[in-house]
Backbone:
């Protein structure tokens, strides 16, 4: 049992290093040019957003439409800090401060709203995100209002993006596999039964909401640092919907689904730039077609894992054994 | 010594009094039945005992390990932590999770490692998770579900789903177990097997059991004492033989005779 766990850990590490090195190589060979690099950044940020929203909506079963709100908090906090301290430590501090602020707001918002269920919760979280947006819009002196913050120092590169994205995925998937994560999933499955089995449902809903908000804050901070410019419009209702689309498309309750969907949509968006006029029509069509053929999402609630390679390896070994 | 003592418990929904002035004493180690016609308020009483409803008036006191605790108004998860577990009349398993996960979730309240450990899978995580799996498998073996640990709960046959509900309730390590119609939908052979199982887990886990049941072969077969509920009121209490011959009980079940009409 113990040995198996260690082998899995090594495999995860190896595949992470491989992913990093291959993309880094493609960047230095200029196969991924600066235009594609911004697509890459957008994909990484979307993965962080989708995986963290999946924890709230897919695993804990709480329908939230306010993820862009948490993202905007991370973006503004990080932008304001790096504008004043334009150094690497300033950037690290900015990302951390943005994430923590988003998490704190997550607790404050979560405690009253998570008593609501289903549609009511969706509307409450939507309202929350709008309130955050309006606050940023009206804090002229600090946030520069509707004009937004410009010339935010850019610190993100592939290494940073990879570090944060891989970190988010590992931490959230570890959480899901823990007893605390199972408590969250039991709320999605049957809240009444979960309570009867000793799970404090309010506590775990708020926990999931807070963790989700924390990572949305990180995503926002990375966004600000990658694209140098933020204004309140970016973090409107449609941004929350965009994130939800990635989660639903990948499959509610599947982390690998969210990752695959974020990558797929990133690539589709990039290639549709060529048809600027009908870009949104094609994008929507692609979504409709996927949803017709895979209503449960690309992955359903299943995970793509390294054990697939294990199985392939085993069948190969057993074949060899027979010969 | 009574493990559960209910005094003047009343629950009304608007104008309807679903449970009215109920007094109940259950002694440690006893196996007590709760019967009554449909709509008598049996499940409402269970929901009051497990915190899903807040009593309109009256008290519920649980005495475990020499300490007594008032359960009225506590949340379900707190009541569970105090040692009361239940099953549901209409099975409420975590359908899309595996048999093992269903049981592991019920053991969550004893998990000590924190969130940080769950994020990073620190050694304390590994140690406690291994222990959780060991304990869960032990429980599943007892209920003969161990070979199905990786099946989704919804794919189990009906009888095994009922068994899994009991396994899950036992996983919370209760002192008092409330079973809401455990034999509902079972055939006579399955019911006989279940009757045996209930008696056996009582010995094995040192439990006090209160069960709601319509199947009289089960109730009369294993219950030491029976409470009869009708229109929210306790109309009789006694040994199975006393209940069988109690006129008020017969009247509640069969209606009044023509000569009284």
Residues:
């Amino acid at each position: 049992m113990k040995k198996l766990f260690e082998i899995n850990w090594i495999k995860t590490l190896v595949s992470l290093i491989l992913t990093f090195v291959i993309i880094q190589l493609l960047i230095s060979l200029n196969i991924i040019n600066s235009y594609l690099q911004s697509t890459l950044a957008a994909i990484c940020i979307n993965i962080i957003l989708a995986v963290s929203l999946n924890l709230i909506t897919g695993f804990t079963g709480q329908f939230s439409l306010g993820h862009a709100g948490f993202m905007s908090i991370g973006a503004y906090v990080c932008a304001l800090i790096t504008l004043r301290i334009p150094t690497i430590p300033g950037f690290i501090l900015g990302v951390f401060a943005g994430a923590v602020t988003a998490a704190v707001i997550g607790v404050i918002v979560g405690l009253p709203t998570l008593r609501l269920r289903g549609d009511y919760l969706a509307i409450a979280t939507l309202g929350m995100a709008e309130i955050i947006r309006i606050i940023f819009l009206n804090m002229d002196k600090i946030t520069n209002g509707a004009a937004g913050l410009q010339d935010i120092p850019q610190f993100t590169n592939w290494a940073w993006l990879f570090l944060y994205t891989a970190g988010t995925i590992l931490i959230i998937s570890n959480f899901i596999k823990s007893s605390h994560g199972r408590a969250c999933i039991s709320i999605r499955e049957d809240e009444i039964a979960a309570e009867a089995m000793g799970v404090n449902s309010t506590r775990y809903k708020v926990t999931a909401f807070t963790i989700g908000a924390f990572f949305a804050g990180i995503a926002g901070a990375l966004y600000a640092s990658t694209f140098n410019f933020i204004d309140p419009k970016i973090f409107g209702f449609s941004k929350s919907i965009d994130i939800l689309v990635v989660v639903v498309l990948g499959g509610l309750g599947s982390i690998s689904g969210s990752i695959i969907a974020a990558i797929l949509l990133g690539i589709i968006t990039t290639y549709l730039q060529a048809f600027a006029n009908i870009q949104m029509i094609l994008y929507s069509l692609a979504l409709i077609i996927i949803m017709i053929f895979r209503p449960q999402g690309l992955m359903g609630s299943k995970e793509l894992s390294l054990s697939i390679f294990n199985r392939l390896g085993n069948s190969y070994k057993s074949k060899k054994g027979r010969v | 010594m009574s493990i559960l003592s209910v005094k003047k418990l009343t629950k009304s929904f608007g104008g309807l009094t679903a449970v009215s002035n109920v007094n109940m004493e259950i002694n440690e180690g006893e196996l007590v039945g709760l019967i009554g016609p449909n709509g008598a308020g049996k499940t409402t009483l269970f929901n009051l005992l497990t915190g899903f409803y807040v009593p309109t008036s009256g008290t519920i006191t649980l005495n475990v390990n020499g300490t007594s605790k008032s359960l009225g108004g506590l949340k379900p998860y707190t009541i569970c932590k105090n040692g009361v577990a239940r099953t549901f009349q209409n099975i409420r398993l975590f359908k899309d999770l595996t048999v093992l996960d269903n049981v592991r979730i019920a053991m969550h309240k004893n998990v000590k490692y924190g969130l940080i450990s769950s994020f990073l899978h620190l050694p304390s995580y590994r140690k406690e998770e291994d222990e959780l799996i060991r304990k869960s498998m032990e429980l599943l073996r007892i209920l003969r579900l161990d070979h199905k640990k990786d099946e989704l709960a919804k794919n189990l046959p009906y009888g095994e789903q009922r068994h899994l509900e009991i396994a899950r309730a036992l996983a919370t390590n209760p002192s008092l177990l409330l079973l809401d119609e455990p034999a509902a939908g079972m055939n006579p052979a399955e019911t006989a097997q279940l009757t045996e199982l209930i008696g056996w887990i009582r010995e094995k886990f040192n439990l006090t059991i209160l069960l709601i049941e319509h199947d009289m072969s089960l109730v009369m077969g294993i219950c030491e004492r029976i409470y009869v509920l009708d229109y929210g009121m306790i109309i009789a209490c006694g040994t199975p033989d006393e209940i069988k011959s109690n006129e008020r009980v017969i009247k509640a079940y069969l209606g009044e005779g023509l000569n009284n009409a």
User: Anything to note?
Assistant: Residues 123-142 of chain B form the longest helix (20 residues). The interface with chain A takes residues 50-52, 75-77, 80-81, 85-86, 88, 92-97, 101, 104-109, 111, 113, 115, 117-121, 125-126, 128-130, 132, 168-169, 171-172 of chain B (CB under 8 Å).
